[in-house]
Structures are given as C-alpha cells and as structure tokens.
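RETRY 2/3 - previous attempt timed out on the joint model. Re-submitting the same 614-residue input unchanged.
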Amino acid sequence: MVVDNAIKEWWTNALLNEMQSAHPVFGNSIEVRIEGETVILTGTVDRFEQIEEIEDEARSIDFVHDVVNKLTVTSTAHSLYHMQTVIAVFPDDEDAKLACHAIETAKIHESSGPHTLHGDETSSADLAERAKAACVGQEGIQRHLQSLQEGKVLVIDRVPEDDALRVISALEGSRALAIETLAPEPNAFEE
Amino acid sequence: MVAERKGEGPPAAPPPKSSGFRRILRIAGPGIITGGADNDPAGIATYSTVGASTGLSQLWLLVISLPLLIAVQGVAARLGSVTKLGLAELIRIQFGKKIAFPVALLAVVANVATIGADLVAMAAVLQLLTHIRLVFFIVPLVVLMGYVTIFQNFKVIQKVMLWLVLVFLTYIVAGFMAHPNWGRVLVDTVLPPIQPNIAYFSGAVGLLGTTITPYLFFWQTAGEREERRGVERLGDTYLDIASGMVISNVIAYFIVVSTASTLFLHHKSIQTAADAAQALQPFAGSFATVIFSIGILGAGLLAVPVLSVSTGYIIAGTLGWRMGLGRQAFSAPGFYSVIALALLAGVELAISGFSPIKALFYSQIVDGLIAPIILTLMIVMASRRALMGAYVASRWEKIGVWAAVVVMTIADVALVYTLVSGR
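RETRY 2/3 succeeded.
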C-alpha cells in the first residue's frame, strides 16, 4: 500500500504520543488507542473501504505489530450505498430465527434487520416490493415464492451492498438450504 | 501503558486526488492479478511455441483477443459484483446440477493438467539453473505454494509476485532488439494470414485457450466478490481489468515477436526451457537464461496458487460449500482441502512421467472446448434481468463475449476439422 508521507508522519506522531492535530484525511472522526504493541482504532468513517484503508495505514508503520479495528460506518452513510436484499431458505422457523441472530452479529451497518417470511400474503407482498426495488421483476422472486408455497421459511435482509457478503458469510454457517441475493437497488444514492 | 487520544483540529479534508498511476495502484485487484496469472508458465510456453513455429502469423489473434478478454473478465466481475456469489454457484443455481457438474468436472480436469504443466515448467528452469534433476524441485515448490495459499495471506503475497512477473517486460525490449521486420509485424497484426493446417489451428486454439481461460473466469468472479467493490465501483473494476489484460497481452505479443524474430527465423523449434530462453538473447545475452528463469518462477508462483484456488471455488461453489480466501482454513475446510488436493494432483501429473507438453496441450484443448460453453452460460446469466436487475451486461459486453464464443468455436471446429482430415 502506498501511504502519503504526511499521513505516515501523522501516524508516527500519533503513536509516539506527540500528535495533537486531526488526521489529514479523516479529521476528528477516528481515534487511536495503544495497548502494549496493539493499536486499537475506533470511530466512524463515511465509507466501508475507508475502514480497511485506515487499518492499512496503521499497519504500514514499522513498529505496529497488531491492529484491532473497531471502526464503523456512519449511519448517514447508508444513502451512499446501493441497498441489496439477501434471501436464505430454511426448513423451519427455529433455524431461520437462529440465522437472524447470526446475521445481526455479523453486520457493520445499522439497518432494518433480518426478518422471517412464511407462506402468507404479507410475505408475498414483501418479496414483491423487494423485487420491484431491485428491478428483477416477478421472475426474480419466483423461486422464493415457490419455496414459501412448499412450507419453507425465508430469512430476508435488506442491507447496504458492502454488507451483503458479511450476511452471506453468516448464513453459510447456518442450516440454510439456499442463499441468494436480489440485484443491488439502483438510485440508492438519491434516497 | 494505555495512551488514548482523540484528534483535534480542522474537520476532515476530502481525500487527495490520485494521479493515474496511483489510482491504478489503489484499484489494483483481481483484474491485475488475473492479467499476471494469464501469462502463466504454460501460457509463456504456448506464446513462445506459437512464435517459434508459426512466426508472426498469429499476432492478429492477440490484438483481437484483447477487447474480447476485457469484455469476458468484465462480465465475470459484473456477475460476482452484482450477485455476491461465485461463478460455479451461479451456474448451479441458474442452470441446475445437470449442467453445473459436467462443466465443473471439465474445468477441474483442465486446471489440474495446467497445474501439472506449470509445475514441470518451473522445475525445468530450476534444473536449467542448478543442473539438478527437475523432479527434485516439484514437491518443495508445491509445499511452498500450498503453505502460502492455505496458511498465509495470499492476497498480499500475490501482489509481490506480480513484480516478479514484470521480468517478462524484458520481452518487449528483446522484441525491439531482435530487429524484426516491423512492416511484416504490422501487416501480420492487422491482416490475418490464416494458414489452413494443423500447426496453425492448434496454435490458434492454444493461444486463445491460454488467453481466454476458464479458470480466470472463476477467479475473477470470486475475486470481485471478495474485493467488495460493489456495483457503484464497476468503473474501477473495469480499469483494474483493462490494466491487467493490456499488460498481459502486450507481453504475450512481444513474446511472439521476439521468438518469431529469433527462433522461427533460424528454423529452431522449442523442445526445452533453454530453447525458449534463447528469445531473450538479443537483449540479455548470456543472462537470458537467468532472466527467463526468474520470470517463469514468478509467473508460476502466481499462477499455480490461482489455479488451485480457482479449483477450490469451482468445487465448493458447485457443491454449496463455504469458500473464500478471506476465511481461515478451519472455517472453510472443504474449500481448502480442494486447493490442497488440486496441488497434489498436479504433483502426481508432473512426476508421473506424463509428457508436460502433452499435459499442456490437452489442458488447453479442454480449456478451448469448455471456454465457449462457460462463456455462453455467463453471458446468458449476465443478460437476465431477473438476476442482474438494473445491472445487466452492457451492449458492448454482450458483443465482446458473444464474439469470443464465436471466435473460439471457429478455432475449435477448424482444429477438429484439420485433425480429422489430416491436413
């Protein structure tokens, strides 16, 4: 990773306890704490990739051995992302609820949270709304409607796009029969 | 000691604007890695053989394959970026197991054959340098690559490997120093001098097969998914891919020019790694062998892990297992076991006495045969609004991928025809 000299200087000073100024790029929004040889990062940033960018900056300093990254993305930053719906199919309600809990602990964004769908009209309407937002049409949710008709339970979660993979990873550890996504929603930027 | 502080001072300034080169470094991801892995030892052997056996007559293929390759890898990246799923998973979900399983099987066979051929090529250059039999290098090479891929952060290490592959930029200098007939180079680049014989068409299938390669489709889709750039940064994705593919094809172009201007001109064929290294002599003189060897090792150290990981993606995706280089080995045991098994199968192939040239040839034939099938599945999926929503493939991507399907199918049919007719 190529780190600008001014940024490198800021980190060096910050870690040597001489730093009084704000980060050249992220200003006051990030905090640096040192415990032994471990650097702990806290605070909020506007974009997901900035979390890894800041961690890379810290790791580029020679004497940093370990970094604990507790940075989060601001809730107002959600409007910067395309929202995406992740759908998983479960054999029963109990497994679905366990999966919802696993998803909650995996996310880095605030969002509406996962919920379960059963074979009722409300669920079909919910799916149809998601299909409309994702521009995938009725065909895009046909398989999921079929699963509901077969008595299966769906876990559905609408999250910022960069959180979708975390949700999928959390679901991969569950008893999901299938995990899919709907396409990211366009125009989320203007929401 | 626990020191805690919070920055004080002015509010955050916007990030400084990146220059072109810095931007490329910042966005360097699976696209540039794919470009590096595209020129694997087997690929370099193919380009060298094509240059030595058919001269400049297939340069045009490298030119027309560039936009096709960018379109193909772009669609692979788009699929991963939009769906957050791997290509093998997508094929299983969208087309069912009856199509997914045979495609996966053929792709795995081709991958393992290529791993075997690449291992032999890497061991051969070590033999060239040390005069110790190549068979003694194969297991240590695989242990090293397996350890790095499974237990270390391969994503970091592969960026280092890319610098080793840059050694092949010396082919560009060698190409100029070989003083080719530039008029002939230009004519053969823009006017296809097609020769209706087996050597020409097998070279064409090999060249296309090693350029537009199935394992890279799987790698790109999964890599884009793990990169988490998302649809908002599809522009960065394309810049990443285009940079990788341009570098890859420019190097391939000059490998053909330099081997055609040295080996082909003097009617020398390539039988060994030492023969292939001769193309660098106009530039490197007596260091040609060393430079060629470093390049082959760098290319292999990058490509073999990519091939084995790609095999992991194929099997895990087809069977619905957990996968991803972002996971520790214990949390995706099936995925990492496949990577290890693919490397072991490559070792078995490499030390079994099976001719590496045959392994290379057959792997490319299989690649060449399945590539149009996988490309067709990819572009059909990328064009489905029910799957891609507002992010269906663009018109240019569709034209590019369908053109790749047509060109590769024509090359396959022509090869089969020339083989059957014995011309």
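The CA atoms of residues 67 and 327 of chain B lie 34 Å apart. Closing ticket.
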